[in-house]
Specification:
By secondary structure, the chain is α/β, with parallel strands linked by helices. It is built from 16 helices and 22 strands. The chain has 3 domains: about 90 residues, 3-Layer(aba) Sandwich (Udp-n-acetylmuramoylalanyl-d-glutamate--2,6- Diaminopimelate Ligase, Chain: A, domain 1); about 210 residues, Mur-like, catalytic domain (UDP-N-acetylmuramoyl-L-alanine:D-glutamate ligase); about 140 residues, Mur ligase, C-terminal domain (Protein-Tyrosine Phosphatase, Chain A, Alpha-Beta Complex). Helix 2 links the parallel strand 5 and strand 6. Helix 3 crosses helix 5. The protein starts with a strand and ends in an 8-residue tail after the last helix. The C terminus is likely disordered.
Length: about 475
């Protein structure tokens, strides 16, 4: 819980206004939604395309807000409580989050990458719990709004904070890095994601490694060596960067996927500066080895032993809509609907094909957004990836279907390609294929809302155990 007064919060944000009216009021937290505000919280009047938080400032004050943060005058609130004026409400929230981070006793670990960073964050937090109390982002609240909210919800007495950082524009990492000021940074990979904002794979590498510029003076950086652009950019900023690898590079930390386990899940080997661990975990696919070794390298450096690392992996829950494996009658449905980019698409398709083994594989995929001028080429390449899997069918939702079809071979692919626009048609589409069961992978960019297709197949049936 926060331990600040209104006047201290105002000073941290560079706010002006009616501070004297409540300078000794203790702040219990922050809130951006007046419907869930609790007495003692500061209400931030954020504005978006379809809402303006200033319209709810009066309701927040009446509900017991310790103060409201505004970017325009609200004379109607005069005398009701502290009204703190700032130039930009979101920036002010970040400034308060940074002030709380600097006051905290916790060691801060920042996690970023193009794919799998939420899984790395969850695994790492689980590993570190054996060393000391650990705080982390809620779900994937990883941007300029979510990160400060998460930090301000922590007590500051935890041994560790594990914070996931997500970016889509070049300046994002500068803003997040300056806010978080990590003691440890880990970058697990790069791929052609958010190219609309970051421009190119080189742009992704530069933007991700900008995080290393914000490390504390005695901080440490951990970066995957399997991505040459990423590794070179990291070494240019931090020559002392510590490497890890899931592809056999000579690194002090190495991860290997040894194949599917007999009872489900997968078998993995981790090498931690010479110490070797082998165990089974409730995940399949080589990319989980990359996620594991990214988390394990940091945890090991912070005092987690082999038992804590293995326990942290086993205890990790697959985040919602991220390769959740569920049963739907004769079908095994892989719900990877949360988001997609070319790197995560390739990985999920490969893992789905491995899980399917000899069973029919059907891919229900959605458009990959924010790829800029490279979108046509990257969708053609996705078609080529699918053509090499042995999948029986690809049902495509969204734009660039023609490019995916070209990548499949313009009709020469032996599988079935269908353009789908309505989730309600999915079961009839599957029936048209003449298949009585198998594996279905559902994946696409967030705005495609591919979870609608999962619901059409799974309904309220339970998880099948992975």
């Amino acid at each position: 819980m926060l331990n600040l007064t209104v006047s201290q919060a105002a000073s941290a944000m560079g706010a002006v206004g009616d501070v004297d009216n409540g300078q000794d009021i203790r702040v219990s937290g922050v809130c951006t939604d007046s419907r869930v505000l609790r007495p003692g919280e500061i209400f931030f009047c954020l504005s978006g395309e379809n809402f303006d938080g200033h319209e709810f400032a009066g309701k927040a004050m009446a509900g017991g807000a310790a103060a409201v943060v505004v970017s325009r005058p609200l004379p109607e609130l005069s005398g009701q409580g502290p009204v703190l004026m700032v130039r930009d409400v979101l920036v002010a929230l970040g400034a308060l989050g940074c002030a709380w981070r600097m006051a905290a006793c916790s060691k801060v670990v920042a996690v970023t990458g193009s794919a799998g960073k939420t899984t790395v964050k969850e695994m790492l937090a689980g590993m570190l719990e054996a060393v000391g109390a650990t705080g982390k982002n809620y779900k994937n609240f990883n941007n300029q709004l979510g990160v400060p909210q998460c930090m301000l919800g922590l007590s500051g007495t935890e041994a560790f904070w594990v914070l996931e950082l997500g970016i889509s524009l070049p300046h994002d990492m500068d803003e997040l890095g300056a806010m978080v000021r990590p003691d440890v940074a880990v970058i697990n990979n790069i791929g052609p994601a958010h190219l609309e904002g970051l421009g190119s794979l080189e742009g992704v590498a530069r933007a991700k490694t900008d995080l290393l510029r914000y490390l504390s003076d005695d901080g440490s950086a951990f970066v995957c060596m399997d991505y040459p652009l990423l590794w070179d950019c990291a070494r240019a900023i931090r020559p002392d960067v510590i490497g890890f690898s899931a592809m056999g590079a000579e690194a002090p930390y190495r991860g290997e996927y040894l194949g599917q386990a007999q009872g489900g899940g997968g078998r993995f080997r981790l090498t931690l500066r010479g110490e070797v661990l082998e165990f089974e975990a409730p995940f399949t696919g080589s990319y989980f080895a990359e996620n594991m070794i990214a988390a394990a390298a940091v945890a090991h450096s912070l005092g987690a032993n082999a038992a804590a690392i293995e326990a942290g992996v086993r205890a990790t829950s697959v985040p919602e809509h991220r390769f959740e494996v569920r049963a739907a009658g004769p079908w095994t449905v892989i719900d990877d609907a949360y988001n997609a980019n070319p790197l995560s698409m390739r990985r999920s398709i490969a893992s789905a094909a491995e899980l399917a083994d000899q069973r029919p594989l059907v891919l229900v995929l959605g458009e990959m957004k924010e790829l800029g001028q490279d979108a046509p080429r990257l969708h053609r390449e996705l078609g080529q990836v699918v053509a090499g899997t042995g999948a029986q069918a690809l049902l495509w939702f969204g734009g660039h279907g023609d490019e995916v079809h070209r990548g499949l071979g313009n009709g020469h692919w032996p599988g079935t390609f269908m353009q789908t626009e309505e989730p309600r048609n999915l079961k009839s589409n599957l029936a048209e294929l003449g298949l009585t069961g198998g594996v279905v992978l559902v994946k696409g960019s967030r705005s495609c809302k591919m979870e609608r297709y999962v619901r059409e197949l799974v309904g309220n049936e339970g998880d099948c155990g992975q």
